[in-house]
Design goal:
24 helices; 7-stranded parallel β-sheet
Length: 658
């Protein structure tokens, strides 16, 4: 295909119109209206050095500026021309346009510098302008990479992550705003973390990238401060790369719309909203008036609910606790709910198919009782956005799936107070499960509770997720009072649950334990759907909702054994009431961590997010948080999903990508 000068003139006029439009938009929004100038960017910035990359294919949408000021005012921000016709500039532009669609095309590579993933042209500005006007995806260029000085700046960290990715992909399109994202991409594509891409894999990925970019831009992605690859990674959490390649443009846009809220969530510093209390029905705010009547009329009067469990109740105390909660929900709500339960549902395809079948049968609410089912929940939520889907896990960054858990640390604080009060020597053992979100908070709450009633209390920490026998280890150290795992339900007070004491014969007597009352959670959550509380939280667009309820909502309780002295029982009652009312906050006091750092000076309170993401231990705790490599193989999957150092782990191709 070739064009004559008249057609090239028309192309220039079209590009000129676009350039003037871009210029006006930049001025209107207070942005610099011309291409960025690299020399000005680097004037106050130290460069670590430079690397000659030779001639490579440059993604044309990543060409954002020019090396020196030169004739920068001849172009708008998007490299579209700004100079009138009948100028030397327009004549050369038109000649290049004719050459572009001629027999030889534009063959000479441009010369440019790359800095922080963006390209700045030294020679060939008009060639870039012509090719951009035709929507060309790439242009050959001789590139010199300028490497920034390493720093803790998130943008610099993300760029160094890109440099690592480039060694394996050879593609500039694989660029993210957050460190660690490339590892997630490798896993999502089914590659090992150190896999070096073949030429065929580069070609296929580049094609899929362009397909995705087209859909992303049509939905307004250019206006979001995220890269195309950032958004593509969100897509790959729900849909496969094969689906991206095989879908039509309309189908891609439709599927992309289902995860658009999660993509917008990328721009938020904290994409998860922690909800600590039941959303009550504010009737005084709903009536009178049309909108009040409309809002109430929009709420359901009967709900079909489906529970999904990985195991059967006789196989897992955790599942049995949730199943009792389901029974409680049915007993309390009666004919307002129709409940169906699924057991032995394996994560992955089986769970996805089971959830889809439940929705087809009319399920309006889905509860999945274990974290590994999050992948199936996410895919079901994308396909059926009107279904209310919840997963029993914590700190999951999906706006379409709400997560729920309980503030067990409140009960652990009371256990610590009991232990400190009855301990003879102040040496108290604590056995923790796995280093997942909320567990360090429980350890610290217990330690602070013990310190409150026994200032000299020392907590000997052990973990059940590593090699060894923690109960035996503590017994060998003559530690008689131990906080073991909490009981799953009040009717299963079997030894040695909760806070237990070693007897002279080596047996243990359970003294007290916090417990989970999932029935109260399910009833209150379902009632919030009926009353409009669910919809009230939906106004937090772009944020995932994490229910994290405690004693105030009666999701956490405390069970005392016969061996607790009456005075300590009275103390427990005072603490329970104070925590439920919010007048007693376990972490509002002077707190030092093990390295001596003051974590709280005693004059402020920790936010729910700070408590949930604690990764340090109090100074009266002896022991440490185990590394991932120290964990038993059976404990590693849950830590990959919910671990406090989740973001520092290299994803594996079998992982659920978060």
């Amino acid at each position: 295909m070739s064009i004559n000068r008249k057609e090239a003139l028309m192309q220039y006029n079209k590009a000129l119109k676009q350039g003037r439009k871009t210029y006006k938009e930049c001025i209107l929004h207070g942005r610099y209206p011309y291409p960025q100038i690299l020399d000005e960017i680097l004037s106050n910035t130290m460069s670590m050095g430079q690397v000659d990359l030779g001639v490579i294919e440059i993604p044309i949408d990543q060409i954002t500026g020019i090396k020196t000021e030169g004739r920068s005012s001849a172009f708008a921000e998007d490299f579209m021309p700004l100079l009138e016709l009948d100028t030397e500039f327009s004549d050369k532009w038109i000649d290049l346009c004719i050459a572009h669609l001629g027999d030889e095309g534009i063959r000479d590579p441009i010369r440019c510098y790359e800095y922080m993933g963006r390209f700045y042209v030294q020679e060939g500005n008009k060639r870039v302008s012509v090719l951009k006007s035709y929507g060309a995806p790439a242009i050959p260029g001789y590139v010199i990479r300028l490497i920034p000085m390493w720093s803790e700046d998130p943008a610099v960290l993300a760029y160094y992550d890109f440099l690592n990715a480039y060694q394996m992909t050879g593609l500039y399109q694989v660029r993210f705003t957050r460190p660690g994202s490339f590892g997630k991409l490798q896993a999502a594509l089914g590659y090992e973390s150190d896999h070096i891409w073949t030429e065929e894999e580069r070609r296929i990925y580049s094609a899929g990238y362009l397909y995705f970019r087209e859909a992303f831009y049509k939905l307004g992605g250019k206006n979001l401060p995220v890269t195309v690859s950032d958004a593509l990674l969100v897509w790959l959490k729900v849909y496969s790369f094969d689906i991206l390649i095989s879908s039509s443009p309309a189908e891609r846009i439709k599927k992309l719309e289902t995860v658009w809220t999660d993509i917008k969530g990328l721009i938020q510093a904290d994409p998860i909203s922690v909800n600590t209390e039941v959303q009550e029905d504010k009737k005084e705010n709903l009536e009178p008036g049309f909108w009040g009547r409309f809002f109430k009329a929009s709420q359901p009067n009967r709900l079909k609910i489906a529970f999904f469990n990985e195991y059967f109740p006789n196989e897992s105390d955790w599942i049995r606790a949730h199943d009792l909660g389901r029974e409680y929900l049915e007993a309390v709500m009666g004919e307002q709910v129709e409940v169906q339960s699924f057991y032995g549902v394996r994560p992955g395809k089986e769970a996805e198919e089971a959830m889809e079948k439940a929705v087809e049968n009319g399920a309006q609410v889905i509860f999945a009782t274990t974290p590994p089912l999050i992948g199936a929940c996410r895919k079901t939520a994308a396909k059926y956005p009107k279904v209310r889907i919840l997963n029993c896990s914590i700190s999951m960054p999906y706006s379409g799936v709400r997560t729920y858990y309980s503030r067990i640390y409140e009960g652990k604080f009371i256990m610590g107070a009991i232990a400190g009060a009855i301990s003879r020597d102040g040496q108290i053992g604590y056995i923790a499960g796995s280093p997942i979100f909320g567990v360090p908070a429980s350890i610290n709450a217990f330690a602070l509770g013990a310190q409150m009633t026994n200032p000299g209390a020392i907590i000997e920490l052990r973990w059940s997720c590593v090699e060894g026998e923690p109960m035996k280890s503590l017994a060998q150290e003559k530690i008689e009072l131990i906080s073991n795992q909490e009981i799953p339900t009040p009717d299963r007070m079997r030894e040695p649950w909760g806070l237990c004491q070693m007897e002279k014969d080596g047996s243990y007597t359970s003294l007290a334990s916090p417990y989970w009352h999932w029935g109260n959670f399910y009833v209150k959550l379902v009632r919030s759907i009926f009353s409009g509380g669910w919809d009230a939280l939906s106004s937090q667009k772009g944020k995932a909702v994490n229910y994290w309820w405690g004693m105030h909502s009666q999701t956490i309780g405390v069970l005392l054994g016969d061996g607790i002295p009456s005075g300590v029982r009275q103390l427990v009652e005072i603490l329970q009431k104070g925590i439920a009312r919010g007048s007693i906050l376990p972490f509002q006091r002077l707190i030092r961590s093990q390295n001596g750092t003051v974590q709280n000076d005693g004059h402020h309170w920790f936010s729910p997010e700070e408590i949930l993401h604690m990764n340090w231990l109090c100074d009266n705790v002896t022991g440490k948080i185990p590394s991932y490599e120290e964990l038993l193989p059976i404990a590693q999957p849950i830590v990959r999903l919910q671990g406090i150092y989740r973001e520092q782990l290299n994803p594996e191709k079998e992982d659920t990508i978060l």
